[in-house]
Write a structure and sequence with these properties.
The protein has 183 residues and is α/β, with parallel strands linked by helices. It has six helices and seven strands; from the N terminus they run αβαβαββαβββαα. The N terminus is likely disordered. Bound molecules: ligand SHN and 1,4-dihydronicotinamide adenine dinucleotide (NAI). The site of 1,4-dihydronicotinamide adenine dinucleotide (NAI) has 22 residues, from helix 2.
Length: 183
């Protein structure tokens, strides 16, 4: 039997984020930006049944195909402050710091929760790395400290679940022994 030795108080310098699963069916989610990050956020939103609007002059081919299928609404121009009006959630995912900051500010002024792709501390909510199988979802978060680590742990967990191995536990062990740099 393995003994986990992770000392949680040493590993984090702040409070934990509150874990929750959101029921977004029919709710407006505005994603600003049309690049790789915006595409990932939209891909994960699609399964939730949210009503998705993407605001961006340029978009990826995946976004284009969802727009062509009528699954995503596209506002094909640069962001304007009124774009966040009526949204349940906003995702600021442009490659311009000042624009992302303005989006967060505009959402905050309206009391709308905003995810800011380039500033973990400015996020009202963050997106975990998710493993889904048969409608069951497992979500991994580092409370924003290391998104790449969340992704690697999710991938290790997925492999474990798929072939009965113990990669996820081995990865956690490596972290707890202070040798997580190789992860
Ligand atoms: C706070 C948060 C806000 C949010 O986006 O929700 C955030 C923030 C930032 N990410 C950055 C970088 C990267 N993020 C990824 C990947 C993922 N990022 C995700 C979540 C989150 N990222 C939230 C915290 C989650 C948590 O840990 O609790 C995942 C898990 C979920 C998803 O996005 O769907 C998804 C993997 C899932 C999948 O693949 O399925 C990769 C790797 C890759 O892209 O392959 C890189 C490059 C490598 C690196 O730098 O680490 C930067 C620096 C940007 C810059 O400096 O340019 C910031 C800004 C900052 O840290 O301040
Ligand atoms: N949170 C996360 O998971 C990650 C965040 N990032 C950060 O996320 C941001 C976006 O990264 P990528 O998608 O890779 O960038 P990208 O360069 O692929 O895409 C940027 C998109 O923003 C759009 N855009 C630019 N100005 C705009 C404006 N004023 N209004 C509306 N849309 C505008 C562009 O048309 C483009 O579609 C970067 O700041 C990056 O540092 C990067 C990796 C992961």
């Amino acid at each position: 039997m393995y003994q986990l030795k992770v000392n949680a108080s040493e590993k984090r310098d702040t409070v934990l984020h509150y874990a929750a699963f959101l029921h977004l069916h029919g709710k407006l989610c505005v994603v600003v930006g049309g690049g790789v990050v915006a595409t990932r956020k939209v891909r994960n939103l699609l399964a939730s049944g949210a009503s998705i609007t993407v605001v961006s002059p340029e978009i990826t081919s995946d976004l284009q195909s969802w727009i062509s299928d009528g699954r995503v609404h596209h506002v094909a121009r640069a962001y304007q402050a009124t774009d966040v009006t009526g949204a349940a959630l906003v995702f600021a995912a442009t490659n311009h710091r000042a624009v992302n900051e303005a989006i967060a500010h505009d959402a905050d002024a309206l009391g709308i929760w905003c995810n800011v792709a380039d500033d973990a501390k400015a996020c009202d909510f963050i997106v975990p790395a998710v493993y889904e199988q048969a409608g069951i979802q497992l979500a991994i978060s580092t409370s924003g400290h290391s998104p790449a680590l969340a992704k690697k742990l999710r991938d290790a967990l997925a492999k474990d679940l798929e072939d009965g191995g113990r990669r996820f536990y081995a990865a956690l062990e490596q972290l707890s022994s202070g040798d997580g740099t190789a992860l």
